[in-house]
Design a protein that fits this description.
single chain; about 270 residues; alpha+beta; 2 domains; seven-stranded mixed sheet; 7 helices; 7 strands
Length: about 270
């Protein structure tokens, strides 16, 4: 019995303490990525981001939604590629090799595409179930599914047909896949933050002497980050002002619809 156990591959196990320690780090990293993307739209450096637990959790939730939708598509693709029917395997291969990066591109374009990718994922689930039942009843569909799967499996090596050949290239493939899966949530959180800034139309506004009207972009602790803007044109330049919140005690803030604000297009000066 001990010999049998010794031949089994060891699995990496994390203690509850390690898991509980990793969770806040991941949440903060997702929140930081989201906030960095938000500030980048206005040209504000990420060094101004302060550790604010409630703000980081809210930002992490927004960023995690994008990561969840992307990983939902990926898990559905992998599960389908090793499914029972040939039509299911074909759909999985198409989703994995031809659909994954277009989905990432759509998600990086903003929240408008979240519902589209979600509906597409659930639609594919319904299609897989339907084709699985029809394939058993329709011989011509089964033959077509077999031919389609054979063609796709030849072009894209499917998961159930891979042979484990240890090599440096195989190790690099696994390392690249792990790096990609690790980076996807944070890249999507960054793009989600940036597109959130592009779509923001209601901001807190106040006035300051010698500066004019300012829009509050973020408040971190006792630090207020604001940008000057042009109300009529709904434009801004990549400039920002940082105030201590105590210096604004007598300032009146109004919540107004002033956007979405667009960056002023800089015109090159003639030589």
């Amino acid at each position: 019995m001990p010999e049998t156990l010794s031949n089994q591959p060891r699995k990496i196990q994390l203690s509850e303490g390690v898991v509980l320690g990793i969770i806040p780090v991941v949440v903060y990293a997702l929140g930081f990525s989201y906030e960095s993307g938000y500030l980048s739209y206005y040209g504000i450096p990420s060094e101004l981001i302060a550790i604010d637990a409630p703000a980081m959790i809210r930002a992490a939730v927004f960023g995690a939604i994008y990561a969840f939708v992307a990983l939902l598509w990926l898990s559905l693709a992998v599960d389908s590629s090793v499914g029972e029917s040939y039509s299911e395997k074909s759909i999985g291969i198409i989703m994995l090799y031809l659909g994954f990066f277009p989905v990432l591109y759509l998600l990086s374009k903003g929240s408008d595409y979240l519902s589209i990718v979600m509906m597409l994922s659930f639609g594919i689930i319904f299609l897989v179930v339907l084709l699985r039942k029809l394939e058993d009843k329709l011989p011509w569909l089964q033959r077509a599914s077999v031919k389609t799967h054979a063609l796709l499996a030849e072009a894209f090596q499917s998961e159930d047909e891979k042979q484990e050949i240890p090599s440096l290239f195989g190790w690099l493939q696994k390392a690249a896949a792990l790096f990609l899966l690790t980076m996807i949530p944070f890249v999507l959180a960054f793009t989600a933050g940036k597109h959130s800034a592009e779509d923001d139309s209601v901001l807190d506004v106040f006035e300051r002497e010698r500066i004019g009207e300012l829009a509050v972009i973020r408040i971190y602790g006792d630090k207020v980050i604001a940008i000057p803007f042009h109300r009529e044109k709904q434009e801004f330049r990549k400039q920002y002002v940082v105030f201590e919140i105590g210096t604004l005690s007598s300032v009146v803030f109004t919540n107004e619809h002033i956007g979405p604000l667009k960056e002023v297009e800089t015109v090159a000066k003639p030589k």
